[in-house]
Amino acid sequence: MEKFFEITKTNNLSRVGKLRTKNGVINTPFFMPDATRGFVKSLSKEDLEKIKLSPMVVNTYHLYLQPGIELIKKSQGIHKFMNWDGPLLSDSGGYQIFSLIHKNPQMGKITDEKAVFKSPLDGRKHELTPEKSIQIQFDLGVDMMVVLDDVPPVTYSDKKMKVAIDRTIAWAKRCKVEYERQIKEREIEEDQRPLLFGVIQGGKNATLRKYCAEELVKLDFDGYGFGARHVDENGVFMQEMVAETAKMIPEDKLRFALGVGTPEDIVRFVACGWDMFDCVIPTREGRHGRLFIWKEGELKDKDFYTTININNQKFNDDFSPVDETCDCELCRNHSRAYLRHLFVSKDPLGMRLAAMHNLKFYLDLMNKLKK
What we know:
39% of the residues lie in helices and 20% in strands. It is an alpha/beta fold. The protein has 2 domains: 5-279, Alpha-Beta Barrel (TIM Barrel); 287-370, no CATH class. The strands form 4 sheets. The chain has an 8-stranded parallel β-sheet with strand order 4-14-13-12-11-10-6-5. Helix 9 links the parallel strand 12 and strand 13. It is globular and about 60 Å long. The two termini are 29 Å apart.
């Protein structure tokens, strides 16, 4: 049987590989923008195809609340609903629910059985179990899915962190059982099955992370994620923890850095052997007028890029391209002065062009890292 993931080249700890999904092959390492609610804000299918984007992330929690899974099932899955034929990964919805509850305990509670939460849209009460999260993701029809885990804040004590990890492991077991039940019930062939990812929690405690990783590896997932934040409470990158967690994952398994991140953090993760990334940064920053620009220099140096805020007055009569080395629609056709004019005028075209430019910067970054 052909492997779904194979490593084709390594350089120290970093690696290049091929990932086969039911909706196409992806070369690793790769970046996925967040199409949270089934769309990348302000960008059309044609815009995304123009910059040669392939995989994206959709959000189980948000799609469950709106437009609702029944509607997506009626449209024959999320690919048909959003008219996207590239690979899609769904996260479990856990991060959003736990963030909601940790920030405001009145919005819900977490038990060993399930998460109970109120919808921020209409206040209605919902329940999410590991089984239900997997069922929803199968209904979406994605290529890759993530188990429901307990996402503890990095500031948790070791005692509270252990409780969250034990729950994460217990839920991962339940997710795996439900995943196998769904495969059988839906009569899905091996080459058409979605890949399933476990998530390694443990915060800043290497011993707890190792314990979590060892228990999850026993369950034999297709890949494993770096759970929770990769920076400490002071915003300092946890280099040693990132490198050590990668070593806890078998070499033939995918390593997914969830929610990562800034260009320099992606470079650091790739150097430690991580393969997959997703983040809202390029598109969100673009919509607010912050653009990523290449500088000369090696990727291992932190200053291989800079950013500008196009809203600044100094760009009012700057008729140069945003980035002279970039061939995106914005940089080929328009000046900084014109883009600033669009933002000052609050025209959606400005947000669209800036988001496209930033996404292309991220995709170019991944291509450079592959080399």
